[in-house]
Design a protein that fits this description.
Helix 2 packs across helix 4. The protein contains four helices and four strands; from the N terminus they run βαββααβα. About 15% of the residues are buried. A four-stranded antiparallel β-sheet has the order 2-3-1-4. The protein has one domain: Alpha-Beta Plaits (2-Layer Sandwich). A hairpin with a 5-residue loop joins strand 2 and strand 3.
Amino acid sequence: MTTLLAHIRIKPGKEAKWEAIMQDMVAQTFATEEGVRRYEYWKGQEPNSYYCLLSFADKAAFYHHQMSDHHEGHDFGDVLEDIRLEYIDPVADAGGGLARTLDPPLADDAPPEQRIAQERFPLQIAPWWSGRK
């Protein structure tokens, strides 16, 4: 499984446009993608701050999402000030039923889009997770 928390800052005055994009993204993601487990957007306390919790069945499903037509079709540059992806791993029996975040190699026959996504969004497994449940 691949789970991450996106830390997002939106350009001032772009909140309504951002939220409309996110509503479309969530609807299209659940309507057209297999392998999505969680895909939720949240407003933070700081002005123009948002978070997204994303969880996918595996790395390939995450990469498929990142390269999807509905993801690539929005003008994120117009609304995003900053985004940081943080890969996260659930605590055993306290992670909402999500499985561990793993980084297996892509299949030999993985499509080119998967390889591009892997270059853009390499999974980062924190060393201190090793040996923890």
